Each structure stands twice: as structure tokens, then as C-alpha cells.
Amino acid sequence: MLFNSFEFVIFFSIVFFVYYKSYNNLKYQNVILLVSSYVFYGWWDWRFLSLIIISSISDYLIGYAIDKNNNKKQRKQLLILSLFVNLGILGFFKYYNFFTESFTDFISIFGFESNPSFLNIVLPVGISFYTFQTMSYTIDIYRNKMSANKNLLEFMTFVSFFPQLVAGPIERASHLLPQFGKKRKFDPYEFKEGIKQSFWGLFKKIVIADNCAFYANQIFENSDSYPGSVLVVGVVLFAFQIYGDFSGYSDIAIGISRMMGIDLMQNFKSPYLAENIQDFWRRWHISLSTWFRDYVYIPLGGSKVNSSFRRSLNIIITFVVSGFWHGANWTFIIWGALHSLFYFIQTAYSKNLNTLKILPASLVKVFNITVTFIAVTFAWIFFRAESFTHAINYISEIGSSTILVNPISYLRDMGASIQPIIIIIGLIYLSVFEISNRNASYSFQVGHYKTPVKTLIYCSLLFLLIFFRATNGSVDFIYFQF
């Protein structure tokens, strides 16, 4: 079930009405959330609900056992069991064929042959998100950062909470889980702000992302037919497509949750205004980047290790694992590795910049934002490409003399005539709101304009949203595949 579908509007309206009719009874509220979350997920494929239930019950029991056990060795064994269950499920469904193929290719180098058995496995939607969410629960109990939750209903609701179930934000149990232990009453202000947040998320998805996708998909899928200048347009449009698509989903999830009295963490904070790669990852998919910081980078030793080589290795491992989390393809691993390379270049550049100080601060800031955006956009080529060869060919064409060819005629031949205008309008809206709200907790605030101006803004956004929802229909969110 998609947030941008009419089915979801009906579904959420019913859930919302029944949910607040039961606000005097906490147990009923959680039962309604749990059942509605299973219906929401089961709308895609009921069979995979068993995986969520297995993860929920196993980590509930293991978390409780760790909390009650004072034996250090046994606590560690229980934690390993939790990781084995969660990573075992994730690894089988997401990485079995990748590892099988990679192993076959590796041994063939030495002249060995094998006949591997590849499985026709369907990747369960959102498995990477809810697996990481429930894993952090048992890890935090093991680290004595929180106590085990004794209420199975509350814990299962935490794992399966439908607004953020399939594409995040990846919540920490210490933040989200306690909220299911408190009654939620209807709050008119939070309801209004939730609607605005969801509305802005839908705009980013339907108006910006889906219209950018119209061109980006054609260009990437037929990259051999276009000159380098068109390929540059394609990757820039993909950069805004994936941002509008993914941050739009997060905005909708946050907005829906606010309407229901649940607070989710901010997941994006104007990432394309970042001044360096480290700053980018403080702003992009914040729930994932902080997860890898806390559960991969710091356990490896983080930046506290004495060896500069070890510190650099920790950074590389974290970025590469982050890339591999996104998908079972070498392109994602390279994408992650590129970000670690950019990080090292940024570090060296920052040291030199501090000694020069020859440019105005505002000009340096604009330069840094521009360079960071170019680096991130370049890496998106590997993220979007079907294979390593596809990415290399794409980059090679950009580096050729065809980069000077006028791309307008090629874009015009692709079909739709209204998309370019709407993309420009949408990006103008996006830029204005991103810049004006770059320090805000939530991304959609119209600001201190007079009422007629606010009304005009809301109406124009609503018109574009309704028009392109009717034109393009319900388009899947990109991160559903991860």
C-alpha cells in the first residue's frame, strides 16, 4: 500500500477514526496500531508478515533474557543469537544470490568451476529497515543503555509501526518504544502540523521526484543512445528524484505519526546544502547514518584509536557497509567507497583551506556546497546504474567531447512537454523552503508571509499535487527496494 494511493487515504481515515475513538484505553490503541500495521504491510504480501513476527518475538524474548542475565558471557551469547536471527533472515533474502555469484566468479579465477543454485527470492519490502530497528534494541540492552520492555504488544507495535515500517526513519527503541506505553490524545496543533508535513512530502514525491524520474529513468535506461550532456542532465535529475522520493516518504511518515500523537526523528535536513561529505551525512538519511555511527563505526574504535591507518580503515568499512546495506550489487559497495574517498579528500582540503584564508567566507561556503553536490551527484551514477560496466560507460560518455552537445533537442524528443516547466517550478519551491527552513526541526514551514501569500502558496502546491497524481498515478518509492 503506497502513501500516494487512494487506498491509503481510505485506510488511514478508518484507522485514524477508530484509533482516536479508543484514546481512553492504551491497550486498544496499540492493538489498533498493530493490526493496522500488519494490514498495511500484508497489503503487499501477507506471507512476509511471518518475518516481522519472528523478528519481533525473538528480539523481545532475547532482549528480556539479556536484561535479566548478569553473566557477561551468556549475555554476549544471547546478543550473538539475536544478530544471527536478524542478519540471517536479512542475508538470506537480500544477499544469498549475490554471495553465491561472487563466490562462483572468484573461484573461476583459479580455474575452478561450480554449478551454484540460485534462488528466485523475492526481497521483502522494508526488511533492511525493520531489521536494523529491532537489532538496535537488543544491542542497547546488552550495552545497558536501556532496560527490556516487558509488554509484548508495545514491542511488536514498535517494530511494525506502519508509517515508518518499510522505509524509515529507522527509530531507536529508546525514543520510539516508550511512546507506545503512553496514551495519545488528539492534539489539534500536532494534527495540523502533521497534515502540512505529509502534504509537503507528497509534493516532493509526486511533483518533484516523479517528474524528474520521467527523464532520469529514460536517460539511464538508454544511456548508450545519448551524448554526455544529456547524461549529466540525467544524473542531476536523479539526484533530485531520489531526494524528493526518499525525503518525501520520511516527511509523510513523520506527518502521519504526528497526527496520531507519535514523534519520529527527523531524517533529512537540507542535504544538498551540505558543505562537505561529513556534513552531507549529518543531513541525509540521518537515522541510518547515526545507526552506522553508533553500531559500526564506534564499536570499531571510531576516531579514538591511536593509529591514523586504523581510523581511516574504520571510516572506509563504515561507508562500504553502508553502501552494501542498500543492495546486493557491487555498484552500491563502490558508491559507499566513493563517499569514504570524498571524506579523505575533504579532510585534506579543509586543512589547506584553513591556512590560505584568501577568499570571503560566503564565497567559500558557496564553493564548498557546489563541490559537495557535484561529488555526491557523481556517486549517484553508481547508485543508479544497473552494473559496474553501465556506470563506467556512463561516466566515460560524460568525459567525452559529447559533453558539449546541446541536450535540449534530446530532452524534447523524450515526449512530455510540461515536465521541464514543472520540474523547474518544483525545484524553485524546494530551494526556497530548504534554504528558509535549513535550521528547522521539520522541513515544511511557509514562514512569516501575509495570509494571501500563504494561501496562494498552499493552493498552487495543492493544484500541482492533484494534477500530477491524476496524471502519473501511484509510483513506487525508490527505497522500497532496499
Automatic annotation (TrEMBL):
| Chief location bin | membrane
- What keywords are annotated for this sequence in UniProt? Acyltransferase, Cell membrane, Membrane, Transferase, Transmembrane, Transmembrane helix
Transmembrane region(s): 5-23, 43-66, 78-98, 118-139, 226-244, 313-338, 358-382, 417-435, 456-480
Highest taxon of source: Bacteria
The topology of this chain with respect to the membrane is: Multi-pass membrane protein
Keyword Ubl conjugation found: no
What name appears for this protein in its UniProt entry? D-alanyl-lipoteichoic acid acyltransferase DltB, MBOAT superfamily
InterPro entries assigned to the protein according to its UniProt record, in alphabetical order: Ac/AlaTfrase_AlgI/DltB, AlgI, MB_O-acyltransferase, MBOAT_fam
Similarity section: Belongs to the membrane-bound acyltransferase family.
The keyword Ribonucleoprotein appears for this protein: no
One Pfam family cited in the UniProt record for this chain: MBOAT
Q: Which GO terms describe its molecular function?
A: acyltransferase activity
Q: Which organism is it from?
A: Algibacter luteus
Organism classification: Bacteria, Pseudomonadati, Bacteroidota, Flavobacteriia, Flavobacteriales
Q: Which GO terms describe its cellular component?
A: plasma membrane
Compartment(s): Cell membrane
Q: Among the record's GO biological process terms, what is one? A: alginic acid biosynthetic process
